Amino acid sequence: MPDAAVFNGRFLPGSRLLFEVFLKKNLYFYKALLDNLYDGVYFMDLDRKILYWNRAAERITGYTRSEVEGSHCWDNILMHVDMDGKSLCEEVCPASKTMQSGVPCEAEVFLHHRNGYRVPVRVRITPIHDDSGAVVGGLEVFSDNSEKIASLSMIEDLKEKAFQDPLTGLPNRRFLERFILSRLDEMGRYSWGFGLLFIDIDHFKQINDRYGHGVGDEALKMVANSLLHSSRSFDTVGRWGGEEFVAALINVDSESLRRIAERYRAMIESSQLNVDGHSIKLTVSLGATIGRVNDTIMSIVKRADRLMYRSKQVGRNCVTLG
After folding, report:
1. How far apart are CA 76 and CA 92, in angstroms?
2. Using CA atoms in the order 268, 248, 172, 119, what is the torsion angle rounded to 10 degrees?
3. 107-138 per-residue burial string, b: 16 or more CB within 10 A, e: under 16
4. Under 8 Å CB-to-CB from 181, ≥6 apart: which residues?
5. Considering 20, 243, 255, 269, which one is annotated as catalytic?
6. In 3D, which of 126, 52, 18, 141 has the Cα closest to residue 5?
7. Mean pLDDT, to the nearest integer, of 190-218?
8. Catalytic annotation present for 243
């Protein structure tokens, strides 16, 4: 098989062992090349069986090559969801759509990290053809969302200060109070509005009682990462205490505040923590409110807290805006 056939995306016609032949024949060069890319890369056949998984894919997702290669993309691994938390693996899989149509596509999705939380990525999917023009598989390249990288950079800055929650790595209550105070000051000076979300994990005590506090800590970290990776780069989300989190959102009105709150809710609902063969799924209840002219830190947080308890009272796993 000539090397040129690899570069133009065409391979020997009729070969059902296309990717295996490709990888064996070009093992050293191509694995070294792909493993040194910053973006995640994987190949799949027409049955969406994953045949290659590069080093960056391991870094971004937490799943090792041995855990992924040989599995299918829907096998409880990547579990892509869209911005609303809707699963893409069954009916609207971008990779399946590309391999059926033969047309490359791009999408912004959230994949499932090995530690349970959702990671925002931009995916680019290209069909692979043989010499007859038939589609024989697909190549997906995915990269970290830039907003996530900016958020992580902010978290790194907290490590040298006393503003970081030691368990989750998020800003702590002390930082959040200062941040909210700054937003209230801006609202008074410049009429810049902002919104606040009070977020509480549903039935968290049951998780601690059933699985132990170690698993409870992992659940807190999963929720924290889901919130962080679902946030815009200029918003701030932190741990208020216990199983409670607070997010302060800049430049929002009631409609956009609800939309972002629903995104947080859906991302956490669609995540799961795998412990000793058990899949632990979590939900959160949220209270959402827009800052008011006469608000103090205490008044806006208490209002959001009360709204969160209304969400608990009407069945949990929902957003109450007020």
Report:
1. 16
2. 30
3. bebbbbbeebbbbbbebbbbbbbbeeeeebbb
4. 297
5. 243
6. 18
7. 93
8. yes
Contacts of residue 99, Cβ cutoff 8 Å, sequence gap at least 6: 46, 127, 135, 137, 138
The Cα 274–Cα 31 span in angstroms is 30
Last residue of a domain, one of 87, 109, 144: 144
Q: Domain range holding 234?
A: 148-321
Residues 198 and 74 placed together within one structural domain of the fold? no
What is the per-residue pLDDT across 41-96, written as a single tens digit (0 to 9) for each? 998 988 889 988 999 999 999 999 999 999 887 776 788 888 777 888 766 788 88
Centre a 10 Å sphere on the Cβ of residue 93 and count the other Cβ atoms it contains. 19
Considering its fold, how many domains does the chain have in total? 2
Strands, E assignment, the chain:
10-11, 40-45, 50-53, 105-112, 118-130, 135-144, 194-201, 236-241, 244-250, 273-275, 278-280, 284-290, 319-321
Q: What b/e sequence results for 24-45 when a residue is b if at least 16 CB atoms lie within 10 Å of its CB, and e otherwise?
A: eeeeeebeeebeeeebbbbbbb
